[in-house]
TrEMBL record:
<keyword id="KW-0808">Transferase</keyword>
<dbReference type="InterPro" id="IPR044428">
    <property type="entry name" value="SETD3_SET"/>
</dbReference>
<dbReference type="GO" id="GO:0003779">
    <property type="term" value="F:actin binding"/>
</dbReference>
<feature type="domain" description="SET">
    <location>
        <begin position="94"/>
        <end position="314"/>
    </location>
</feature>
<protein>
    <recommendedName>
        <fullName>protein-histidine N-methyltransferase</fullName>
        <ecNumber>2.1.1.85</ecNumber>
    </recommendedName>
</protein>
<dbReference type="InterPro" id="IPR001214">
    <property type="entry name" value="SET_dom"/>
</dbReference>
<dbReference type="Pfam" id="PF00856">
    <property type="entry name" value="SET"/>
</dbReference>
<dbReference type="GO" id="GO:0018064">
    <property type="term" value="F:protein-L-histidine N-tele-methyltransferase activity"/>
</dbReference>
<feature type="compositionally biased region" description="Basic and acidic residues">
    <location>
        <begin position="575"/>
        <end position="590"/>
    </location>
</feature>
<dbReference type="GO" id="GO:0032259">
    <property type="term" value="P:methylation"/>
</dbReference>
<dbReference type="InterPro" id="IPR015353">
    <property type="entry name" value="Rubisco_LSMT_subst-bd"/>
</dbReference>
<dbReference type="InterPro" id="IPR050600">
    <property type="entry name" value="SETD3_SETD6_MTase"/>
</dbReference>
<keyword id="KW-0963">Cytoplasm</keyword>
<dbReference type="InterPro" id="IPR046341">
    <property type="entry name" value="SET_dom_sf"/>
</dbReference>
<dbReference type="InterPro" id="IPR025785">
    <property type="entry name" value="SETD3"/>
</dbReference>
<dbReference type="GO" id="GO:0016279">
    <property type="term" value="F:protein-lysine N-methyltransferase activity"/>
</dbReference>
<comment type="similarity">
    <text>Belongs to the class V-like SAM-binding methyltransferase superfamily. SETD3 actin-histidine methyltransferase family.</text>
</comment>
Amino acid sequence: MGKKSRVKTQKSGTGATAAVSPKEMMNLISELLQKCSSAAPSPGKEWEEYVQIRALVEKIRKKQKGMSVSFEGTREDFFSELMTWGAECGASCDCFEISNFADEGYGLKAARDIKAEELFLWIPRKMLMTVESAKDSVLGPLYSQDRILQAMGNVTLALHLLCERSNPSSPWLPYIKTLPADYDTPLYFEEEEVRHLLATQAIQDVLSQYKNTARQYAYFYKVIQTHPNASKLPLKDAFTFDDYRWAVSSVMTRQNQIPTADGSRVTLALIPLWDMCNHTNGLITTGYNLEDDRCECVALKDYKEGEQIYIFYGTRSNAEFVIHNGFFFEDNAHDRVKIKLGVSKSERLYAMKAEVLARAGIPASSIFALHCSEPPISAQLLAFLRVFCMTEEELRDYLVGDHAINKIFTLGNTEFPVSWENEIKLWTFLETRAALLLKTYKTSSEEDRSMLEKPDLSLHSRIAIKLRLAEKEILERAVSCCRAKRLHFQKQLDEGAPLPLYEESDIALLENADAKLPIILRKLEEEDESVQEEMNLAQIKPDAACVDSSKTPVLNGQCKDLNGTQEDPPGGDAVVKESKVEKHDPSTKRTEVASLVLPVKGGSKVRK
């Protein structure tokens, strides 16, 4: 990502199209805030609302042209300063150097051979930008009075980042000057590029992300100009939409949860140097050592001198990578398509089905996922579908009798069908649902592949079309798999094959030593953590009084206190994974980091 990097120089309006009076700007900001705070549009009108909000934002951006604070020079000009600062602060800087990896952008390169599980990187707390450091900064007085800042750590971090960027003596300048000048998150997409995401499962989150960011910007613009506790903020003279978009994207692609110094709770943080690592398949290898009060990362595998060092960002789908990180990851082993299923309350057998599902720890209505792997469904989804398709007699077998409870353990096990008829019904149902989802796309897979062959396709359009195609390919594989399963079980039924019978002695094969619930029905969240997460930035209401600080919005990734999507919620997690990056394809470029799950040494696992 060798783009121009923001460096500390006030341009005093250089390049602005025309002088804008404070009153004129405040009127535009008020109009934007009102538009973004209105009632949610009726179904099918979301795109129309997005276009209207975008038009207002573009009008504001045009009048703010040349008014942002920026840095002179390129991003890479400051990497040596970052490494020097890190070493002075006590970070480990001997095992790696920052290098440009072409399509993947900047990352960490091994300066010597590194063994798998070797501790090669640690970052002390003093280097981290956190909600706590924001409270102790020039932002503190406003934080103490603004309930939105108190409720939304991600927004606090974004404003903290902007304030420190404008402070010539900020201790974090060596870090801030190395951040990208812009990002490839949907907040930076042109309208026509966003249009490629229509009909994808990412579109609602993308539209909500833009609306929420615009609302937050308008709200804090007014606060910064009018609130007494904001009078000393360096943002008072220069706080543009582009500034806020940059800060939000910086936080969204990098934030993680770490424990506070006393270990009593978690806080959000930006982690310099570590956040330069690119993503690959693997396991989470980063944790927080409370004893030494530092973030620590061990090597995911053996690295030879000169090789790129990766971390695993978490089990994110490509939709989540696009929304929160601005890249499409080839060969994503965790890619999936969401599917919402539920038992209708008007159904005659609703009570019985809901009871069987409750005993298995599965809600009667939830969001599941069709995976890119084989088979495309998890044990939780298999269990749900079996119950969903049960007859009254079959339901009774799982509700009453001496062995009813034990039979719950078999619901998610492929070895023990409820009946051949039940299997046929569930695979037929799922095949039909996947086929219907495929029909919602406006283009075919073949048309998408043809579009990707165009040499003049923009990076953002390429990312969007790749995501759209990946969703279709998952659904196409699901349809094919379901058809094969349906035909297999139909053959079993036609041939009168004996149904595998569950024996009580089989319970040992199904139990998990650490769980009292069925092995694969333990927790629905384990089926697909990030499917349930909200992505993008959480919405902010213009009236601070209406914000309940006890309900912290979710932010990017799998972190429950980060950025979110949807109209009110949002979601981050990060780790390392090995990937095969398609050569010469810029859409595979990866932002250096994604939110991460930081286990705490000697304590419980801290998730973000």
